[in-house]
Amino acid sequence: MIAGETSRAYNEVITYCLVTGRTVGIGAYVARLSRRICQVENADIILTGAPALNSVLGREVYTSNGQLGGTEIMTRNGVTHSTVSNDYDGVRQLLRWLSYTRKNVKAPFKEPSFEYSEDPIDRCLNYLPSQNKENDPRLMMTIFDHNSFEEIKSGWGKTVITGRARLGGISVGVIAVETRSVFVEIPADPAAPDSQAKCIQQAGQVWYPDSAYKTAEAIEDFNKESLPLFILANWRGFSGGQKDMFEMVLKFGAYIVDQLCEYLNPVIVYIPPYGELRGGAWAVIDPTINPVCMQMFADPRSRGGVLEPEGTVQVKMRKDLVPLMRRLDKEMIRLGILEKEGNDVKVDINARIQLLMPTYRNIAITFADLHDTAVRMKAVGAVKEVVKWEESRAFFTRRLLRLCIEQDIYREAIDVKCLEDIRKMQESLQQYFAKTRDETFSWYSYPDEDAIKLLREERKQIVAFLVGNDFFTIGERYGM
């Protein structure tokens, strides 16, 4: 019964589990069903104790329960979100996690006071990641309030960084990308004499099965906590080798789309300086997955596109390079004339092509790269705005506050249960301003500061309009 109740509780309230001692069997399942686990270092999460397993195996294989479910195991497999040294630190950790959440799921949004904030929202971001050197992505957390970022699951799925933070006093779930290569340690199993400990290298900016699953789980948890989601997107795609396909990278990548489709809170996707979004990675976090809640932005120095420039040249422009040489290069033009006159210049032409190919290929790559810039992404509607990194903190704080106030108004007007409810409320909000201003007024192109002021001043009128409009929609639906 307790397992079923814990599973149902996860969908109704925010559940936590502090493991302070050995938890066995159903206790281990209850811990996992609570999802957000904080494990004390000397506490073990196991299904069967070491002595019982040794008895079944008929020999002394395991020397302690820590080999089965200690922090060394549970932090590396993603079950434990955080580890602490004692019970006191564990309680403090849970309180920190609770501080990011609302009183309850339906509690009204509490607006932060920017005037008395210790970390000004207009603070310029001095840290800038370098283009050609390895960078620690955790340094980019300076976009959030000072010391507010709290990482979870740091020992598992290391190519993705997840956690919670505050932006201008607003609690958010955070997903960022590890750009450096990481190493995954797989311990040897004492029960299998032939097994050996392995250390596997994983490239940065790539989703592997573990990090894709980690991303999907984090999105689900943040949605249950009614947190806005902030994604610092910098992926080149998914790992697609035989091993990764066997380990279900495709399935876990699809889980990311599933969770974003169900997200009922604002989602901001931002491609940071010198970051890029490519291939399948773009496909799974494209705003069209959930246009009601998702918005994508990019720094002017970022890039985005299905193919990288080299791939675009190889696929689309490879056959055009030689005709381009024949048209533009004076020597190729001369050799072409001689060829038409019947002279045997095939060897000379091939030699000239080999000489010019690297230069023309680099030109083609540069041309293809111009189609992946942030300006181009905005022109084709792939991103909403181009936001400079140094000024992004102020911009996203105001944009996030605006979106949170909007959604709070929707929840005050009706009981929001699905994305369709939010979409109808957004349409009704546009109708309200079209009636109270003029028909050409576009709410979603209105500046954020002015929009926040307007929402505060006319909140009661807006709620009343939305409620009336919702009743009209219901009556229209059922032919009343």
From TrEMBL:
Biological source species: Wuchereria bancrofti
Task: Tell me which residues make up the CoA carboxyltransferase N-terminal domain.
Answer: 1-113
Query: Coiled-coil segments, which residues?
Result: none
Q: Which GO terms describe its cellular component?
A: mitochondrion
Where in the numbering of this chain does the CoA carboxyltransferase C-terminal domain appear? 120-439
Q: Which GO terms describe its biological process?
A: fatty acid biosynthetic process
Tell me the Pfam families matching this sequence: Carboxyl_trans (PF01039)
The organism sits in which domain of life? Eukaryota
Q: What name goes with this protein?
A: Acetyl-CoA carboxylase
Q: MF terms per GO, please?
A: acetyl-CoA carboxylase activity
